[in-house]
Every structure is written in C-alpha cells, then in structure tokens.
C-alpha cells in the first residue's frame, strides 16, 4: 500500500468470540487469530483487500478506528500538531518492522496511522 491508503480498520468489541461469529456471518468475513496477535483476531473482507482487527474495547477505544498507511509516522504527527490536531497515541511498535500511532483531528475524529509491514494478517 502507498502513503495515504486506508490499510486497516479496528472494531472495538467486548466479546471477541461473539463478534467474530457476528461479523463472519453477517458479512462473510474470514476471521482468524494469527501468531503474535492472539486475542486480536484479524478480519479480511471477501474482496481480499479490506481488513482489520476485532480489538478489545477499552476506556479510550470505543469507536471503530481507520488506519492510514504513511511513510513516516513521526513526520505525519508533526504535521498534525501544525494543522490543529492532537496526538492521541505516539508511535508504538506493532512488531519489529511496523509501528502504529493515532491522532484526533480538529473535529474530534480519531484516525490511526501505520508505518512498515507486519508479519501477516489482514493489515
């Protein structure tokens, strides 16, 4: 994927098993845990392109979050502040070759960022 592409969508859930059954049945998504991401099943849409994860719901994560592929999280987060947004989560490792972060835009929308490549899954 290229800089600016939406690459992943996390859906916060309270019961991973129930959510996997619900979304798999409703949309025909293929949902599976992959090594290194246990308790965080990845979903893949029938088009083989769209995908994301069913992430545990938490106090700060209650709405779906789209992730945008970027060349440099650090550069994008610097621009976010310049443009009136706010960093929500700083650059954080996913694995040895990929990182994520998130920001809130001036309208209050949280958007995730991803840099690098993960070892597998729908991301």
UniProtKB/TrEMBL annotation:
Pfam families: Ble-like_N (PF22677)
VOC domain location: 5-116
Superkingdom field: Bacteria
SUPFAM superfamilies: Glyoxalase/Bleomycin resistance protein/Dihydroxybiphenyl dioxygenase (SSF54593)
PANTHER family referenced in this protein's UniProt entry, alphabetically: GLYOXALASE-RELATED
Protein name from the UniProt record: VOC family protein
Species this chain originates from: Cellulomonas dongxiuzhuiae
């Amino acid at each position: 994927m290229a800089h600016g592409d939406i690459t992943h969508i996390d859906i916060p859930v309270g019961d991973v098993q129930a959510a996997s059954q619900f979304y798999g049945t409703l949309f025909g998504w293929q949902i599976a845990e992959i090594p290194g991401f246990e308790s965080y099943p990845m979903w893949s849409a029938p088009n083989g392109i769209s995908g994301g994860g069913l992430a545990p719901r938490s106090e700060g994560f209650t709405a779906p979050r789209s992730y945008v592929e970027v060349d440099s999280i650090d550069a994008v987060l610097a621009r976010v502040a310049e443009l009136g947004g706010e960093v929500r989560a700083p650059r954080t490792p996913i694995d040895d070759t990929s990182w994520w972060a998130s920001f809130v835009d001036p309208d209050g929308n949280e958007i995730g960022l991803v840099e690098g490549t993960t070892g597998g899954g729908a991301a």
